[in-house]
hydroxymethylglutaryl-CoA lyase
Amino acid sequence: MTLPTRVSLVDVGPRDGLQNEKEPVSTAHKAQLVAMLQAAGLKEIEVTSFVSPKWVPQMADNVAVMAAIERRADVRYSVLTPNLKGLEAALPTRPDEIVVFAAASEAFSQKNINCSIAESIERFAPVVQAAHAAGIKVRGALSCALGCPYEGEISPDKVERVAGLMRAIGVDHLGVADTIGVGTPRKVQAALERALKHFPLQELSGHFHDTYGQALANIYASLELGVHTFDASVAGLGGCPYAKGATGNVATEDVVFMLNGLGIETGVDLDKLVDAGAFISGVLGRPPVSRVARAVLAKRVG
Ligand SMILES: CC(C)(COP(=O)([O-])OP(=O)([O-])OC[C@H]1O[C@@H](n2cnc3c(N)ncnc32)[C@H](O)[C@@H]1OP(=O)([O-])[O-])[C@@H](O)C(=O)NCCC(=O)NCCSC(=O)C[C@@](C)(O)CC(=O)[O-]
């Protein structure tokens, strides 16, 4: 089986990773994290979200963070926008890409964005149109594609259905998200195969939380299908406010280490990435969740 020779990594640490932190993280620290990620070679960074500050207070400084980051022409900066209000607030901050997020599960849709799946698609349609009119690419995240904290198992049929709805309103790229990290390799392949009915390989990505330690295996299973774009979160930061017990995304350091071992190019410098993870973990006052980061840091100490 031939695996892709190159993988694009989207570091979602500044957004997905930090959104659930109880203590406020300063705007300056968020901007510093973005700076360190791009210095490590990340070309796609999810910076913040334009959601209700009552729902997700940690992202309330979205405009300030977007103003504080030092942009590089070769890096794409994305932000989450759940509705037109979010898009209107985001546009002046010049994101390269916006993310709309639907769920494969009705219950999660209600908890996360306070509306049904059908209503969310209706809500996203004008957001997608307005983003395209502004020349901005739209990524869709499909939450709970492998399981839901409220509904349990999610069938591939549901993934295919919502992927189709996202495609129909013009979403350019689909991220299949295992929000609570319950997916296992063959189930992940089944979900991705259904999503591939609506999105081409180059516009499909995997977003795997590592709650049950399956994320790297799931990435490998995705590579077997030719999927070559993955979200990951430096230091393994994160957890979803609407998915109790969900841990962070797979750590970017762990993904880079595995891909390096497979001879798959990412353009990411592992040492500099570990520095970024150590920096933000220091800000948060705890060690990185990433096992690779811990091993590299321990080796440095000698
Ligand atoms: C979607 C809404 C806004 C609907 O929230 P709602 O309460 O249904 O919205 P509403 O239209 O009735 O408005 C209520 C209030 O929110 C305000 N409001 C309305 N929209 C915005 C906005 N864009 N920005 C700022 N403020 C906003 C609006 O102005 C109003 O303010 P008030 O009059 O009460 O003062 C809300 O449910 C929300 O913000 N939810 C947060 C969702 C979120 O951020 N979840 C985490 C990210 S998704 C995720 O992590 C999963 C992912 C992507 O990583 C993949 C995975 O792993 O699954």
About this structure: The longest strand covers residues 97-103. The chain has one domain: 8-301. The mean pLDDT is 96.
